[in-house]
Protein: Adenosine deaminase-like protein
Amino acid sequence: MDAVPDAAIRALTPSQLAFLEHLPKVELHAHLNGSIPLPLLRDLAREYASSPDAATTTSDDILAGVQRLQAGEAFTDIDDIFSVFPAIHALTSTPASLKRATGAVLSHFLDPPTSDSTYGSVASVAYIELRTTPRATPHMSRRVYLETVLDEIEARAPDAAALIVSLDRRMTPDVAQEVLALAVQLRREGRRVVGVDLCGDPRAGDMTAFVGLFRTARAEGLGVTLHIAETSGNSTAESKELLSCEPERLGHATYLDEEAREVVLARRTCIEICLTSNLSCKTVQQLQDHHIRHYLARNHPIAISTDDILPFRTSILGEYALLLAPKPVGLGLTESEVEAVARMGMESRFRNTLS
Ligand code: IMP
Ligand code: ZN
Structure:
């Protein structure tokens, strides 16, 4: 069976496909290590297998994860997706491999070939805010990690690419504090850091410790986006706590209750919508039930995004195809509705609001 976004692309007429290809789009929610194009991942896995790291640190889980990724398997629930990141991280633990991964992710989004042997039809975005969690590895510090990614981002035009620094819910308070301080410091040094993110396994961590950090980020002029209410297990109290940081954008926001939705609507907080990700993780059962409908009906700002093209086997074109394709494969929006959605993404860039 076709993957969901592939089926939507196939359901488009040639003129609809051309419309989507030419529509100015942005990507505001893409995790670097979830967005590595499969051909590069295969190369990195091959090289890793013969490296000294593989001899000393490879666990069976990492090997199994790499094999599944190499085979181009799709990952189909939330446990599955979080189980694969350690394998990907093993492949991007040196400055050289991280630099290649960042360069390839930027090329995938900003200047892809018109047709890609792995992804089929692809389309470029005009601007990407790429996010990543700085990791300290035996080969680099967190600062070197961020500098390596920033060097690649800053090789692109200032209005084409920028970095969001992710804090992982599983971080200890000390590490989270260090990562926020790095984001602030690098921004003060004039590096292209535009925001911070809260990500990681939505079932992990105590968010109380993070709230102060995100308030500091805002005071420092950084944009704030938070993965929030991603699963039914995320409590109302947690969402309330996260909303108290007054983030400009929210990732997923699938299970916000009525009160939280009212807050979001009143503040015009942009919701980053990742349709295929939510369907793959099974946090949303069917496209026609997706909470995007709630926001579309209220003309509320949303940003259509991919989340992790590697495990979810999607693309920005695929995500837009899900808006435009007729029901039940897509949501059956008109071209002018899709155009308005794309404009909302453009207007929700952190680069818009930051100096
Ligand atoms: P990285 O930050 O570049 O290493 O990208 C991978 C990381 O992004 C993972 O380890 C997760 O913490 C985070 N991530 C990717 N997808 C999701 C998601 O759907 N929800 C929450 N976190 C995610
Ligand atoms: Zn995400």
Remarks:
- The mean pLDDT is 93.
